From TrEMBL:
Signal peptide: none annotated. CDD domains: ProX_deacylase. It comes from the Bacteria. Residues 24-142 form the YbaK/aminoacyl-tRNA synthetase-associated domain. This is Cys-tRNA(Pro) deacylase, prolyl-tRNA editing enzyme YbaK/EbsC. GO terms for molecular function: aminoacyl-tRNA deacylase activity. The lineage of its organism: Bacteria, Pseudomonadati, Thermodesulfobacteriota, Syntrophobacteria, Syntrophobacterales. It comes from Thermodesulforhabdus norvegica.
Amino acid sequence: MASIQDVKEYLKGFGIEVWEFSRPTSTAEEAAQAVGCSVAEIAKTVLFIVGDVPVAVVTCGDLKVKGALLKKALNLKGKVRFPGRDEVRRFTGYEPGGVCPFLLPDEVKIVIDSSLRRFPRVYAAAGNDRSAVPITVEELIKITDGIEASVCES
């Protein structure tokens, strides 16, 4: 299980800093208040199970992922569902509310939603419910080795 310290060390190698807050950042709304940005600029990481495949989608805090688009982007079949709290911990190594796109296990596929490109910089979680990482979409794709796709309804 990766800690915020692990994420800090990992991102430091890319010249990216982690911000920590005394207030919670476990929802897009809370994170936006802590960071001082719009909810849309929060790069929320949401875990889905597609069939039996764990998929982490990083998207704007003001959007919802559309299951059909997600399956098409990854060429997967099966039901798209939200995992329970225990599954989130087991698949990602993070607690719900602090899931981030960094240092995820190899079996978790990562999708970076194209909607994030609306902003020059977005703010992802760093592995706990009181953190944010200012990052560009290009950096997100490179660091996570994620694929970019449009998987949200506009």
